[in-house]
Amino acid sequence: MSSPSFTMSLLLSLSLFSLFAFIAQAQNTMETTVCLASLPPPAFQLAFYNTTPNAFTLALRMGLTRSESLFRWVWEANRGNPVGENATLTFGTDGNLVLAHADGRVAWQTNTANKGVVGLKLLPTGNLVLYNSNGGFVWQSFDYPTDTLLVGQSLRAGGVSKLVSRASETENKDGPYSLVMEPKGLALYYKSANSPKPLLYFSFSERINIQTGTLDNVTLNVSPDTDEGYAYNINLDYQVAKSSSSGGIILARPKYNATSTFLRLGIDGNIKLYTYNDKVDWGAWEVTFSLFDRDNSIWETECQLPERCGSFGVCEDSQCVACPSSSGVLLGWSKTCAPEKLTSCKANSFHYYKLEGVDHFLSKYTTGSATKEVDCGKKCSSDCKCLGYFYNQDTSRCWIAYDLKTLTKVANSTHVGYIKAPNH
To answer: Domain Apple: where (predicted)?
Structure first.
């Protein structure tokens, strides 16, 4: 069986060539073989990997040799466009780095042909760079994050301003979740085919609140908390454009050197920090921060994750506790819990059943619309894609739900939901 290979221009200097461990020889499993590595720890390596047969991704992984099975993938070149056997990665004499299918079709490239590139390096920070004769970066992987930020990497206005989750463990394409740097803050969105726009399920507005100006960048940084380095702060730092105004949020404070850390937007929509302790041989990777956490809800509970309870379910204390039914009875929850499928958009083909003391995941971070409860229902009834509506009787606010997903149990019975169900 053939596999992707790596070729280089003969003009590549010997000093750079020494960084290449050996030619990439990706197998038809999740295991990979290294083709380019950074030298001092934390170690980063450029390699091919695959989660399904004959579908290879060029990616950077992070870790140390003694924990080979625990390497973490932290950047992908060709997400959503995998290559097959006999694909080639070529660093040409024109300075362009090109990943091509076996038939020559380009799967991914740096678009740096004839732009003065003289070399390629994988830096100890995990930044893959193409540089010119002055040492300036013509292209760098730090400018193109996928679902991960490494230490020193940013989301930037005018550049890539969001992270996008992976679809699943096996599907290497864009998933439904995104972490977006907006002009005034940072927010998390869920996107589905049924909704006309991405749905907000978390906002950092209480901690990043830009009153004047707009955000220029948000950067993951790590710094020692004491001169002795007994503890390290892991921060999300932000800078306001054309201003000296800046700030930061401390996300975690490990009691060891935390410079080998990355932030990931997971396939479930959660934000986590993963930190590598290079003094530990076993269990070196640790989750040092989780935005949605069942044990520590300083930030948010898991009930606020749109798909915590799959297609449908009621969540309480980060656990899926009930499956609503059109009979009005709350059944025991299982992964098969789902709303009944509607057979028609006609008004006489469906009815609503009521749930008391529940919030939709939209309710917490969006304001909804100010309207009467009956008009909220009319709005849903006239919209074929609406699956239900949620209403706060205290504030007279209405939320139209194009996806039901996870509903959160609340103590206030004036928070109500109305779910569409077919007439039988």
So the answer is: 345-423
pLDDT at 91: 93
pTM of the predicted structure, to 2 decimals: 0.90
What are the contacts of 336-341 at 24+ separation with CB within 8 A? Answer: 337/309, 337/310, 337/311, 337/312, 337/313, 338/310, 338/311, 338/312, 339/311, 339/312, 339/387, 339/388, 339/404, 339/419, 339/420, 339/421, 340/421, 340/422, 341/422
pLDDT at 68 over 70: no
Candidates 346, 361, 349; CA nearest to 415 is 361
Q: Is 5 within 8 Å of 23 (Cβ atoms)?
A: yes
**pLDDT tens, position by position, 74-109:** 999 999 999 999 999 999 999 999 999 999 999 999
> Which tokens sit at 214?
């707009």
* Residue 43 pLDDT: 81
For residues 191 and 177, give the distance between their C-alpha atoms in angstroms, rounded to a whole number: 6
Give the pair of three-digit tokens for residue 330.
């709350």
Sheet of strand 137-140: strand arrangement: 119-122, 128-131, 137-140
Name the residue with tokens 């506790």. Answer: 321
Euclidean distance between the first and the last CA atom of the chain, given in angstroms as a whole number:
56
